[in-house]
Amino acid sequence: MKKIDSLNLVPFIDIMLVLLVIVLVSASFSVSSQLPIQIPQVDEEMQTIIDSKQINIALDKDGKVYVDSRPVEKAELYGYLRSVDSDTNIIIKADKDANVQQFVDIMAALQYFGLTKAFTEVEQD
């Protein structure tokens, strides 16, 4: 009688891989709901606002402030920030030659309105 030195695992691994593929394929086709309901739709403009959840504020070297590439005055900026949700990301892009006081004013306004997710965009040399 011949002695078996080791157990051949190749057929076992093949079967396990086939089962894994079957599970993955069947899971991707699962139905989200069997209930007879119609999910409400959101208009495109509102969906863009919901999806974005990010506001870009730019400050150029001449002291002009832009919100999402649109020029705004200081009062308009503050009114806009008042209406922004507190979990919105604020990206501040300031020119290196911009007035520091204006940058500080924008940061203070963000803090005043409770917008704590503010980031400053920089470039590496």
UniProtKB/TrEMBL annotation:
Protein name per Swiss-Prot or TrEMBL: Biopolymer transporter ExbD
Organism: Helicobacter didelphidarum
Annotated family: Belongs to the ExbD/TolR family.
Signal peptide start and end residues: none
Keywords from the named record: Cell inner membrane, Cell membrane, Membrane, Protein transport, Transmembrane, Transmembrane helix, Transport
Stretches that traverse the bilayer: 12-31
Localization: Cell inner membrane; Cell membrane
Record-level Gene Ontology MF annotations: transmembrane transporter activity
PANTHER family: BIOPOLYMER TRANSPORT PROTEIN EXBD, EXBD MEMBRANE COMPONENT OF PMF-DRIVEN MACROMOLECULE IMPORT SYSTEM
InterPro entries: ExbD
Pfam families: ExbD
Bilayer topology: Single-pass type II membrane protein
